[in-house]
Amino acid sequence: MKRFTTVNRGDSESQRICLHIKNELSHAGFTYDAANPELVVCVGGDGTLLKAFHEYLNLVDNVAFVGIHTGTLGFSTDYTQDQVDSFIHDVIHNTPTIDEKRILEVMCTNTHKTQHFMALNEVRVENIVKTQAMDIFINDQHFETFRGNGVCISGQYGSTAYNRSIGGAVIYPGLDLLQMTEISGIHHRHARSLGSPLVMNPEAKITLKHESFDHALLCYDHLHIHLDNIHTITIKNSDQTMKFARFKSIPHIQRLNALF
Ligand code: NAP
User: Does a structural domain hold residue 250?
Assistant: First the structure.
């Protein structure tokens, strides 16, 4: 991993750390290559890693990411800002293990075309303007008619993000699962859906259909599109993974403890 680049949160401290890493690694014989890196060093937080993932999505098969948190230890960031010199040492002297995380794929279809998007944390269909009804199919079988604000679909990696805030389960690494969690579901005598998060195998395909998703948004990580004129949304795991370069081992319990 001799070609590297840096991505930062945009604050002056993260920028300063990036410059320091760039200088030190270049001095040690590494090549700064923002166009075609093998290693993307993300300085900021879990949100910075997410933005770097989308920035380098076209290279995702050949690039690995590592995070430094300019705050407390984040969930996926392996170093804090006090450990930058230890990080530089590890990059120069250690070979990382590669930790792969599933990438979600979403297809939005109307009568004319299908659009594709990728997400690492989650895909949400959410309507805060009016009650959104939708028929939910799992592997092409009708599962339920949902009414409420929407649903969130995440894998193991995104289980600690938005999913966790809406009562979804945090999934341990190594458990390759998909999870669908309701966002403000309506439950009464005339409208009822499962109500609890549904955990599925990684091959599951989730299809959301309704004659109108007008005013609803498709949120995929920090990005979104308007769903006006869309009638079918399909979410499943893609064949691609995001790769974390782990230069040191951090117990998962320690990462979980950083969440609360
Ligand atoms: P953002 O400011 O980049 O992130 C919002 C918060 O979510 C930050 O504290 C971030 O940690 C944390 N986070 C992001 N990915 C995480 C993960 N995989 N596990 C644990 N924590 C994670 O917000 P944004 O740009 O609007 O959206 C990016 C992501 O943030 C979304 O994909 C969504 O999952 C998450 N988010 C969560 C909530 C919520 O929990 N209510 C609301 C909005 C967005 P850092 O501080 O380390 O960056």
Answer: no
Q: What is the CATH number of the domain that holds 44?
A: 3.40.50.10330
- pLDDT tens, per residue, the chain with 260 residues: 899 999 999 999 999 999 999 999 999 999 999 999 999 999 999 999 999 999 999 999 999 999 999 976 678 999 999 999 999 999 999 999 999 999 999 999 988 899 999 999 999 999 999 999 999 999 999 999 999 999 999 999 999 999 999 999 999 999 999 999 999 999 998 889 999 999 999 999 999 999 999 999 999 999 999 999 999 999 999 999 999 999 999 999 998 988 88
For ligand 1, pick from 8, 43, 50 the residue to mutate: most ligand atoms within 8 Å of CB.
50
Pocket of ligand 1 (CB under 6 A): 45-47, 50, 74-75, 121-122, 157-158, 160-162, 165, 221-222
Reported pTM: 0.96
Distance in angstroms (rounded) separating the CA atoms of residues 36 and 56? 9
Contact 153, 178 (CB under 8 A): yes
Q: Which two tokens stand for residue 130?
A: 């009016």
Q: Are residues 122 and 35 in the same domain?
A: no
Domain containing 36 equals 3-95
Q: Give the CA count within 13 Å in the CB-facing half-sphere of 9.
A: 18
- Ligand 1 centroid to Cα of residue 52, in Å, is 14
CA–CA dist 49, 121 (Å, integer): 11
Q: How far apart are CA 189 and CA 182, in angstroms?
A: 18
Same domain, 81 and 109: no
Dist. CA 197 → ligand 1 center (Å): 19
Which residue among 95, 128, 163 closes a domain? Answer: 95
Ligand 1 center to 153 CA (angstroms): 15
Residue nearest to atom 22 of ligand 1 (CA): 161
Total number of domains constituting the chain: 2
Considering the domain architecture, whether residues 44 and 161 belong to the same structural domain is answered as no
